[in-house]
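FAQ

Q: What does a record look like?
A: Structure on top, sequence underneath. For example:
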């Protein structure tokens, strides 16, 4: 009997121990689940979210609470966790007085622009418009054609135009022309004199009148008025020593030499304005003209400072030649002989 009782006690003890172990295991699992819920709730709080666990508050100790749960039949309900998120919406900021002013100004400007568009549409598309009076085309004054220059009596390397009017005299225009650097070289350049106001090319008589060169009355009939004015540039002359001269066709050769001889006493003075353009410094020290010969051609001259300056004239065939230097006279003889 004692052995049987001992065996029964051991079996009972073993069953009790197994039952206690099972209870302890269940308690540990429930405690673990409970702690897991607490941990999840704390994590949700750190993220700014609020959790509400719909369960009964625990008023007793954990062991009593677990025993009550064991005695009561467990309801098979799924306990769900509801997460409530609070959304914070910022209140609108009231506009400043400056912003209010700009908004009102912009609104007024838009309204004024709309009224302007409506008014312009009404004016141009609805209101009757007076037909504009036909404008008469302005009368265009025809431009005067360029004056035609007479043919040159000699061949020249190029041709230049000197223009003058009331604002600039011919003497001033010629003086500026003779100082031009593009005249430097060697040879003859034809010069045309144009009166802007009359739109004409000056002949010999008009040229002498503008320069106030005194010419004997009986001399004009001896030569043709269509003369050729030229500039001679020497490669040996200094800068600014371009020499003016002219050549004219003889109309009456009879007594021409006599007329020129009678003119010699006043010729230097009569050509004073002409000589000043070439830089005449003072009158000649000679009282009379001298005669020179070059290649069987004769010419007469009178010299005055600066060097290679003076009044020279000569006759070759049917041409009268006037120059302001001896060198230019010699080169003109060569030119008419076809040797220059």
């Amino acid at each position: 009997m004692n052995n049987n009782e001992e065996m029964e006690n051991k079996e009972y003890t073993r069953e009790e121990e197994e039952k206690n172990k099972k209870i302890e295991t269940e308690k540990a699992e429930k405690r673990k689940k409970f702690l897991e819920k607490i941990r999840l709730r704390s994590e949700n709080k750190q993220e700014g979210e609020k959790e509400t666990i719909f369960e009964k508050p625990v008023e007793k100790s954990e062991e009593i609470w677990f025993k009550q749960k064991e005695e009561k039949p467990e309801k098979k309900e799924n306990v769900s966790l509801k997460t409530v998120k609070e959304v914070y919406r910022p209140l609108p900021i009231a506009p400043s007085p400056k912003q209010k002013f700009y908004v009102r100004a912009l609104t007024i400007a838009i309204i004024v622009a709309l009224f302007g568009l409506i008014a312009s549409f009404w004016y141009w598309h609805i209101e009757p418009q007076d037909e504009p009076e036909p404008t008469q085309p302005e009368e265009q004054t025809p431009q005067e054609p360029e004056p035609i220059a007479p043919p040159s009596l000699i061949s020249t390397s190029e041709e230049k135009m000197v223009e003058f009017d009331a604002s600039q005299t011919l003497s001033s225009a010629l003086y500026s022309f003779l100082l031009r650097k593009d005249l430097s070289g060697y040879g003859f350049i034809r010069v045309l004199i144009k009166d802007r106001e009359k739109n004409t090319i000056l002949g010999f008589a008009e040229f002498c009148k503008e320069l106030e060169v005194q010419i004997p009355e009986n001399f004009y009939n001896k030569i043709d008025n269509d003369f050729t004015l030229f500039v001679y540039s020497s490669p040996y002359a200094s800068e600014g020593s371009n020499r003016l001269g002219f050549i004219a066709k003889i109309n009456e050769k009879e007594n021409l030499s006599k007329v020129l001889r009678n003119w010699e006493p006043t010729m230097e003075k009569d050509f004073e304005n002409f000589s000043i353009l070439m830089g005449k410094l003072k009158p000649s020290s000679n009282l009379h003209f001298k005669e020179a010969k070059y290649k069987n051609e004769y010419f007469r001259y009178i010299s005055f400072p600066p060097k290679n300056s003076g009044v020279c004239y000569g006759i070759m065939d049917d041409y009268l030649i006037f120059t302001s230097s001896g060198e230019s006279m010699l080169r003109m003889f060569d030119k008419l002989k076809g040797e220059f």
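Q: Is there anything notable about this one?
A: Confidence is low (pLDDT under 50) at residues 49-56.
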